[in-house]
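Example A, followed by Example B.
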Amino acid sequence: MLYGIGVDLCDINRIKKALVQKGFKERVFSEEEIMYAESKAIPARHYAAAFAAKEAVAKATGWGIAGIGLNSLFVRRTDNGPELVFNDDLSKKMKNAKIYNAFLSISHDGDMAIAMVVLEKEIG
């Protein structure tokens, strides 16, 4: 059963500017996200896509970014596409809400990155 859908559009240039601020990267992104983005020709694109994914989760849950925290989840890139990984606190909160599955789609083109998240909950 559907729990929520979240979509976020992120300006890559805005993230590029934020990345020069001391500590921004480390506050917002996991080591895995940083390593992935920095291995690409245009890292800001990949940071922006990950940022959009975090915002999309916040919207899909209805808890907002303050309710989940930017560092409570990260995007893992796999051969089968991107996956969301949640820290223990957010995993517990989602389990309590009976959310059992999260689907993520991300893309970037030009100066924009987008993420869409669909959350499923248990029936009953």
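Example B, a separate protein, is given below in the same form.
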Amino acid sequence: MDELPIGELSQGAGVKVPTIRFYEQIGLLKEPRRTSSNRRYYSGDDVKRLRFIRHSRELGFEIDDIRALLALYDEPQSSCESVHGIAKRHLGQIEQRIGQLQALRGELQRMVHEGQHGRICDCRVIEVLADHDLCQHDHTRAGGIGER
């Protein structure tokens, strides 16, 4: 594969140009070859690596996990045990988030079904939003923010 300028890499890998630059800045992508006019050119290996990063992000892996996975990817003869450990930990985090989101959904369903009519001063949704103690589930971590 011939070298690609950053715009073609962006289109081919489905990743925006600023994101590619960010991945370079944080070391997920190696510094590309540059021309005398400072244009970046990427190799076929860069395309594969960027697709790996994009797919990992789509699956919800954090940057530090992707960095670790890429280091393992660069050592194809090493044991797969570490990769499985990272994936298993990530799966556990997803399962925890699903549980939190289900609790959040239940709480919102309850709020909506308990009072759909009337005035704002009698609105159950407003009442529960104003007083977290009226919630029946601990859903504070479902959105990734807040502590109870």
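On Example B: The mean pLDDT is 85.
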